[in-house]
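#dry-run=false #mode=assembly
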Amino acid sequence: MTANEPVVVVNQAVTEGEALAAQRAWCSALLEINATYEKEGQAAAKALAEKVIDAAYAYQMGAVLFKPTLTVNPQTFRPTRAGALSYFVGGDPAFPNDKGFALKGWKKCEAVNNAIFLDGNSAITMGKVHFTDKNGKVTTVDKTWGYVRDGAGNLRINLHHSSLEYQPK
Amino acid sequence: MTANEPVVVVNQAVTEGEALAAQRAWCSALLEINATYEKEGQAAAKALAEKVIDAAYAYQMGAVLFKPTLTVNPQTFRPTRAGALSYFVGGDPAFPNDKGFALKGWKKCEAVNNAIFLDGNSAITMGKVHFTDKNGKVTTVDKTWGYVRDGAGNLRINLHHSSLEYQPK
Amino acid sequence: MTANEPVVVVNQAVTEGEALAAQRAWCSALLEINATYEKEGQAAAKALAEKVIDAAYAYQMGAVLFKPTLTVNPQTFRPTRAGALSYFVGGDPAFPNDKGFALKGWKKCEAVNNAIFLDGNSAITMGKVHFTDKNGKVTTVDKTWGYVRDGAGNLRINLHHSSLEYQPK
Amino acid sequence: MTANEPVVVVNQAVTEGEALAAQRAWCSALLEINATYEKEGQAAAKALAEKVIDAAYAYQMGAVLFKPTLTVNPQTFRPTRAGALSYFVGGDPAFPNDKGFALKGWKKCEAVNNAIFLDGNSAITMGKVHFTDKNGKVTTVDKTWGYVRDGAGNLRINLHHSSLEYQPK
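#status=ok
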């Protein structure tokens, strides 16, 4: 080897750009599930949601730390893929309170971050996400996403905590 | 070196036990800040809260991803130490809506985890935290904590997302 | 969720036991490649070595930091899969000095560690490895192995530095 | 918070530039210890070496995986600070074979990397390091360095495997 031979660099670090791209992909997938539901019905929306979850979440690692926006006791948390799927598209008798968050007519989804923590092969983002429905009504949530890089080099969500904004009485 | 010489193992991995201990320490500190407030007033409580934040949070890394339970726009997130301190003990004109969460008469604090993610020198926990006040009233929040190991070997909170349970209308 | 519901723990940390098992697997594979060579010839040994490299090394991440024991300039380092394969079984005109380290009649291979560094989803070991050939002659090397966990949960070698012991003149 | 408020990014990832800077700092420190030895003697060189080790190595984590170039059994590995210090400046009766590698008249030290692995808050480099002494004689070693980021944000060496180039007989 000589001094001017190129150095091979293997870089596993998650960049801010990758985290932002993963957020945009999540928003796009949500809108696409809703559009599929409106055009083709719940079964098609569910099939798409399964693909999205399998591609974007890290359930293959054993569990995901997932607290969706609108879940209630005793099913607040959704550590399993089945619980995530039911939350997004409903229709699962095992989760009777789920109406399908992705089916609520969303036309726009935008993440506005407050802070991002990049820790090597993982990243965490925290901020607001604004959802606009077909009537123009905006719902804003406080959202934390954690991402890990999988073996194929893609980011996957291993943490998702979403909550409605606090309303002082 | 011989075959039976002991192997030196440097282990940076965060264990479940360490994460649980950090949760208990957070709860204990909250109760202690409240007790100090009741006995010695706001200034003493504030001094203690500063020590707690400096020991338990990772603000020295540049920022903490912190969404407290009761904050409102435009100060929902508290990436700075000053914002965290104000949230816990109030009294900072820069954060006029903060009443001091740690001063609300808490007598008991208990974390009940749903899932834990251990990723080497960091960990994330998600679950319920139950706060009981002096009148026996219980407030439950959904809480995510992220921990990183600092240079001295201690866990520090780099992520904290807390939210009241969703109330369906 | 109730307080006595089991907590789901996703643990990505590499343990000392996993690192030791990976070392034993490397030694076993080396002996097996040699045995295959003796019984079935170079082509069969090469086919097995390809399987071993693909299962045990992290070339799919882009490169491996590999300094084998017996390589010389200008091909000291073997960041590519082809370079690793040639080192173990020879026969590649692109690496004319390689005789095939795995084909040297090894009957025993034992790692004796000096120190191990466990850093979450990666680990590094350093120590002696003793190779015994069919005549009972022992060759000892100083060896560092780095391991990373892949997407399927298995450890893969991303670092391998091996060197003959220093001989003072 | 508004959409155009700046996002706070905490980035713990080690960059290639940081790893290269750490290599240059190691080389500079080696030359400086030698220069101090030539001007002020062994005691001054030892005092400087202690500072360098305390600033650049990660012995405070419990141990360093260190296989120096010229060590012999049974003291090949130097997991302790005392063993590293003795290797660099000699004079420790507990390590009778150490002559002081840093005192050998080095005037130039240059690292030429083959491959670099960046894994979040750690990095590993592998390549040649060329040492030129006062007579212009060049000694080349194969060297692996592992770096971890400490609590103060600095890189520290947690792994160091150095070996003379293989000489075929």
